[in-house]
Amino acid sequence: MGKRRAYSAFGTILKLLCGIFFAVMLIGNVIKTGRDIVWTGLFVILCLFMVFLLYRGLSKILTGLAGKRKYRFLIPGSILFLAVQTAVMLSIATTIDWDPGTVITMAGQWARGEELFWPEYFGYSPNNLFLLICFRMVFSVSSLFAGGGGDIPAAVLVNILVVDISLFLMVCCAKKLYGEKGMAASAALGILTVGISPWLSVPYSDTLGMIFPVLLLFLYLYGVKEGRHKIISCVLMGACAAVGYMVKPHVVIILIAIILMELLDYRGKEKLMQWGKYFAVILISLAIAFTGVNKLSDYVTRDIVSDEMKEEKLPFTHFIMMGLNDVTYGSFYIDDSNATHGIQGEENKKEFNLRVIRERLENYGAAGYLRFLAEKVSRIYTDGTFNYGTEGDFSACENIIDSPPAKALQEIYHIDGKYYALSARFFNSMWMIILAAAALSCFLPRRLPEKSEVNILRLTVVGLTLFLLLVEGRARYLYHLLPVFILLAVCGMLVLSERKEERL
Predict the structure, then answer these.
(1) d(Cα 91, Cα 103) in Å, to the nearest integer?
(2) 316-365 confidence digits (pLDDT tens)
(3) Could you say which of 172, 271, 288, 466 is the most buried, measured as most Cβ atoms within 10 Å of its Cβ?
(4) 8 A C-beta contact, residue 250 and residue 209
(5) Alpha carbon distances (Å) from 299 to 141, 292, 293, 296, 303
C-alpha cells in the first residue's frame, strides 16, 4: 500500500507541475501577442466557436447514431475531407530548399537512376537515410506516371495519409481514455490544428514521425492494457519504436514514459514480474528491429554513403553544443553548424563540441543558465505555427500549382502572403486553446476519476521538454507530439463539460 501511495503522490506532483507549466506557457503566448492581444482574443473566441460547432456535430454522429448509420456519415465525410486536404496542400506546396527538399530531391534522383547531387549530406545526417529509402520507393512508382514532376505531389500525398492515420489513431486512443465524447473532442481539435495545417505540405520527419508516438500509445491501450494479444502488442511496440527512432529519435520518449509509469505502478511482485516480461519483449523486439532495419539501410545505400562519409557524422555532442548557443537560444545556429562541419573525424568533432559546451556553461553560470533555459523553453512553446515558414525560405521556392484558386490559398498560407497573418493568428489561437485546456485538466477536480494512463501523456511532454532543453530545440520539434497535447486538452474540455452539467 505504501508503494501505491508513492505512485499516487508521483501522479499528483506530475499533474501539478504540468498544470503550472502549461499555464506559464499559455501566459507566455499571451505576452508574445503584445499589442495584438485584442485581435488574438477575437481569434481565440472564433476558434472556440469553431471547436464547439465541430464537436457538437461529431458528437451527435458518434453518440446519436447507432451501428452502420454513423458510418454512412463518417466514411463519406472522411473521404471528402481527404480530398479537400489534398487539393489545399498541393495548391500551397512548393519546392523546398532545406532538409526535406534535399532528401526529396535525392530520393527522386535515386529512383530514376540519376546521380545524387549531394550524397555527403547523408554522411553527417544518417538519420535521414531511412526517409531517403522510403521516398525512393514512393518515387519509383510515381515516376512511372509523372516523372520527376510527380515527386513533391506524391510526397505530399503520403504525408497527408500518414498524418490522417495518426489522427485516426489519436481518436481511437481518446475513446479508450475518455469515451465517445472524447472521440468527438479530439477529432474536432485534430482537424482544426493538424488537419488543415500547412505543415502537411512539407513532407519531413516532423509530420511523418507523428504516427509513431500515437501508434505506441494505441498498442499499449488496446493491446497491453486491455489484454488482447499482449505479447504480440509488445513485439509491435518494440518494432514501432525502432522504426520511429530512425525517422525521428524523439518518438521513443512516449515508450520510455509508458515503461516508467508501469514500473512505478507497483501492484505486487507478480504484477511487477509480468510487466518485466513485457518490457523484455519490447526491448528485444526493438533491438532486433533496429539492427535489422539499420543493416538493411546500410546495404541498400552502400553505393551512396561511403565509409569516409560516415566518419563525418555529426555526434550527439554537436546538438548539445548548439542547444547552448545564446544567439538563437538553442535553436539551429549556422556558425555552430559550420564550426562542427569544419572539423574532420567524428572523435575530433566530439572533442571540439565538449570544449565549447564547457566554455558556454562556465560563461553562463548557474543563474545565467537558468535564465537561458527559461528563454529557450518560452521560444519553443510560444509559436502555434511551429516555425512554419521560418524553416527555410518558402517564399524563394517555386509553387507546384499556379492556378487562381491555388494563388488565393498561397496568400493565406505562405509566410509572404497577403493574409498570412490571419492564418498564423488562427493556429496560434488554437495552440493557446490546447495549452489552456491541458492546464485546466490538471487543476479542475473531476466528477469521475481520471485514468492513470493520462499521466503517461504528461510524462511524455515532460520528457520531450527536458530533452529539448538539453539539445537543439525549436517549436517544430513539438509537432510530431501534437496528438499527445490534444489528448491532454480533451481531458480539460471534458472536465469543463462535467462542471457545466453539474450546474444544470
Answers:
(1) 21
(2) 999 999 999 999 999 989 999 999 988 988 889 999 999 999 999 999 99
(3) 172
(4) yes
(5) 21, 11, 10, 5, 8
